[in-house]
Specification:
7 helices, single chain, mainly alpha, globular
Length: about 130
């Protein structure tokens, strides 16, 4: 990873202000500029990309801006099978990530169909026989 989650929580809003507010980029251009600043680092990971997407979505939600262009990214990045990777990479900061994901979940119906299992550790899923 390039940065810790706390560092991303500072950097992404700063980039949003720089690109969207000061330089007058569109929201979508601001997102790609933010992403573009990091993707060429040899330390860039899927977790970095997910952090950027989640935090950018959070900013757009706070400002009541359209975030639909992020749905292809988030529909892939927030699949349940990626959560252990994020949990491992983020360590103690996973709780902050988890809170931010829960906050943006209301933006898109497609996120409702994913059981993100954010509070579950690997292997702790309950087995059921299908009865209620």
């Amino acid at each position: 990873m390039i940065m810790s989650y706390r560092e991303w929580r500072e950097a992404v809003p700063e980039d949003f202000v720089e690109f969207h507010v000061k330089l007058k980029y569109s929201v979508e251009q601001s997102f790609y500029a933010t992403l573009g600043e990091s993707v060429h680092s040899k330390y860039y990971t899927q977790t970095d990309e997910c952090c950027i997407c989640v935090l950018f979505a959070r900013i757009l939600k706070e400002h009541h801006l359209d975030a639909d262009f992020l749905s292809p990214f988030l529909s892939e990045l927030l699949l349940p099978n990626h959560m252990n990777l994020y949990r491992n990479d983020l360590g103690d900061e996973f709780g902050d990530f988890e809170s931010d994901v829960a906050e943006i979940k209301s933006l898109w119906d497609f996120l409702d169909k994913f059981d993100l299992n954010l509070n579950k550790k690997a292997g702790s899923e309950k087995k059921t026989d299908g009865r209620l």
